[in-house]
Amino acid sequence: MWGGAITRLQLQQTISRLRKLDELPEGPRENLAVPEGDQTRRLSISREKEIASNLAFLSATTDESLKVMAVCVEEHYNSEGITIRIASNTGDLSAVIQEFMTLAKILEQAARRENSKAEDIETLFRQVVVLDLYRILSRLRSRHRKTWKTAGRPALITQLHEAINDKSVKARSGLTKSSLEAGRDRARALHALFTKLESMSDLHAETGEAHEVVGEIIKQAHEFPLVTLGAALQSSMLEPTSKQYLPEAIGKLARYYSATFELVCAARDRTCRVFQNVQVEPFQIQMPASLQKSPWKVHAEIQLLFFYEFHPRYQRPRFICSSKSACYLCNLFFFLHGGFHVPRTHGRLYDKWTLPDWLDVPVERHGELSRIATRLKATLDDKVRRASKSQKQYHFPNESVLLPLAHWPSSSLSRNLSAQASTSTVQRRPPFVQEGDLSASLCTEMPLTPPRTPLEPPHAGNSDTETRVALGEAALTDVQMTPTREGATDIFTAGSAAKDSKITGYPSEKTSQMALPNRPTLFVVWH
Ligand SMILES: [Zn+2]
């Protein structure tokens, strides 16, 4: 591949071998962000991640489990605009692109601050409901959206209503009578709205009202006290699966509103005017004729990564987010590549995963890409060797995107990460705990090389701009050990990257040399 020693067929064979031995090479993992370090960007790291993650969540308009969308937010060099770039691992993107363009116009309007914030939120929220109506109906398990996924399962709101009113749910310490009553009132209101939705004979004939009722359900879900629900369910005799499913499902409904709110806040931010111009562009890597009928797929996240390999002069985003957590191979490839972050992985291996080595990327990048492919295969070979000696029990993780991280001010994020990076060499677990039910997951701050754009921008905003890539301090972490599950330990070693280094002018080889000789090597040890 790319002129190196590894062929695509060899890589695929290794992947197939590993799949036979170990379908779940890693546990679910959260990859925490590196601190901010690039003065040329207007978007902070945390804001970029938040926007891309929200857009990726909204881009999942269907419940086709095999369809995964990836989204990134590319800041323009003049700092006065962004491009929302979208890829999908399968299927047609045109409908989503069309709806995202409307969404982009609303965000541009919000950036102009012509209306009140409440009005902007309401306008965007209406568009979100239009965009995601079928996905929301499916999440609700509404009779209007019967799919194989929802068939035979009770409706979400009905389950919620019954659960919180279950005889076994009682006020106790940690759940006052008044908070339980307030939760029951909310559940009753939601149930009334849902009954109204289900009583509609044809949503297509009553589109306006359907959007209104669904929007109201989302808002009520957003207001629903999840802490009360959690406490009520814990005290009940209900099935453990309900106890886990209900708060997650209500949280996902609520996210349509919180994502809207956060996007409007980002767009209206006076200190970061990048939403004045919002472009939406699809990207799809076509399979070559020889692979048209093959089962191989270029995953959506990999497609976006290769967009920037194919177009090295575009400013690279720092995050590539997707509508589901990244698979094991995508996560590993991003880790070895080091140019972008994916927020999390579910750790599962898909053996039809492939790399688009047929794409005509600039020849200057071939050397590095072939080295990455070699390291990828070596890591997988090592996994094969170890997996062939061990026997594993599988507990397959939920692949859907987990609830977003708790929000913290970007300054405190930087401060905390800097403190960790400067003091720790061995870390059991970072101090951040994410929202949602992540009891089965573990946080790992991966010592990634910070994202970088390899070539000089063609139209930098200031002609004398010295474009810089500052190496993030997280890359300075020397060794991290994170137990992924009983009996397994992942050891990441990262060489020390030069503190405060700046790379100017983007000669691609120089960038590579600066960033790559000490690339982290991944070893996974099974005991
Ligand atoms: Zn993947």
From TrEMBL:
Domain of life the protein comes from: Eukaryota
Protein's UniProt name: Uncharacterized protein
